[in-house]
Amino acid sequence: MRRVVTVTLALLVFGLCYTVGAQVDDSQKAQARKHFDAGKALMKVEDFPSAASEFEESVRLFVTKNGLFNLANCYKGWGRYDKALETYKRLDTEFGAQLEEYAVTKMEEDIRDIKALIAWVTVEVSPSGATVMVDGIERGESPIKGPLLLGGGSHTIEVVLEGYEKSSREISILAGERKSLSIELVLLPEPESEPEPEPVPEPEPVEEGRSGLFKGGVVTLGMGAAILIAGSVTGGVALSMGKELEGECDNDECAPPWHDKMDKMDNLAVATNVLLGVGGAAAIAGLTMLVVDAKRNREDEEPLNVTMSPLVGPSSAGAMIVVRF
After folding, report:
1. Which residues of 84-108 are buried (b: 16+ CB within 10 A; e: fewer)?
2. Which of 228, 240, 253, 297 is the most buried (most CB within 10 A)?
């Protein structure tokens, strides 16, 4: 069973005494004093782990006998008896000649109390290099030199090493008792190799190019433009011939010598009407096909079958565009 530990708050009335001869700048001393005062405040509320952290920083910046004395008391209250004994030993080594009689008496009483509370646990770990933790606090790497000093009661000893399964043991021990614990870590199983992924077939190459509707639109528009140009030429010739016949004919009555020219002009006029009609229809159809193609989703589109058929009548002409989807 754990014994209740009475911790004397070692707030010595003579204040913080600094070692003689140590050359420390004022800012470092001020920081050490700040951590020292924080540690005293935490000791009053018995937050020994936090108080120990503050005193550790204080003595790191500027070591004093009061800082070491209070740090040892914090370790004792925390249950870190090994650290408490180490700190008292350091205090006696560095400041033994400067300690007042009552401070020496208090230190000796605390050491006797700690030795009456502790138990010794020897931990052997295979393989070496593993981190050993007691109640969640790291206590070193294996092999651990000497036994671990623990308070009587129940403790959790954990051993961690990369590549091995974590080992956790519960141990109960009485004050003054000695125990040995042997732990052999187990290798973690090697991860199973993942099966090689099946090769993904490469997609068949898609022929790049325009759709049939686009191609048909371009061809139809080009053909319509060519027919319109031809119609413009024949129309121009017919107009020229008409101007020549204006002076020779009266109310469409021409002298016999001009009959052949009159017939040619009429034929050119008819050809012009046909060409302009067909060409205009083809051009409009080609533009329509291009507009429709621009709005379609070509990814899902199948090839189109486009045909054009001219339509010619006695007095009119045009073209029929057939698109098969």
Report:
1. bbebbeebbeebeeebeeebeebbe
2. 228
- Round to whole Å and give the CA distance between 171 and 152: 10
Q: Which residues contact 114 (CB under 8 A, 6 or more apart)?
A: 76, 81, 84, 85
Residue 21: left if φ>0, alpha if ψ -120 to 50, beta else—which one? left
pLDDT of residue 21: 41
The three-class DSSP label of residue 250 is: strand
CA dist 313 and 319 (Å) reads 11
Report the alpha-carbon distance of residue 69 to residue 107 in Å, rounded. 8
pLDDT, tens digit, 9 for 90 and up, residues 196-228: 777 777 766 545 556 666 777 777 778 878 887
- As a whole number of Å, the CA-based R_g of the chain is 54
Instruction: Write out pLDDT tens, residues 61-88.
Output: 999 999 999 999 999 998 888 899 999 9
The residue with tokens 């400041």 is 95
| Angular region, 153: left φ>0, alpha ψ -120 to 50, beta rest | left
**120 exposure class (CB count in 10 Å sphere: 0-12, 13-18, 19+):** middle
158: nearest Cα among 188, 176, 190, 181: 181
Tens of pLDDT, residues 158-193: 999 998 999 999 989 898 889 998 999 999 888 777
pTM for this entry: 0.48
Tokens of 288: 């329509």
- pLDDT at residue 43, rounded to an integer: 92
pLDDT of residue 112: 92
Q: Do the Cβ atoms of 57 and 28 come closer than 8 Å?
A: no
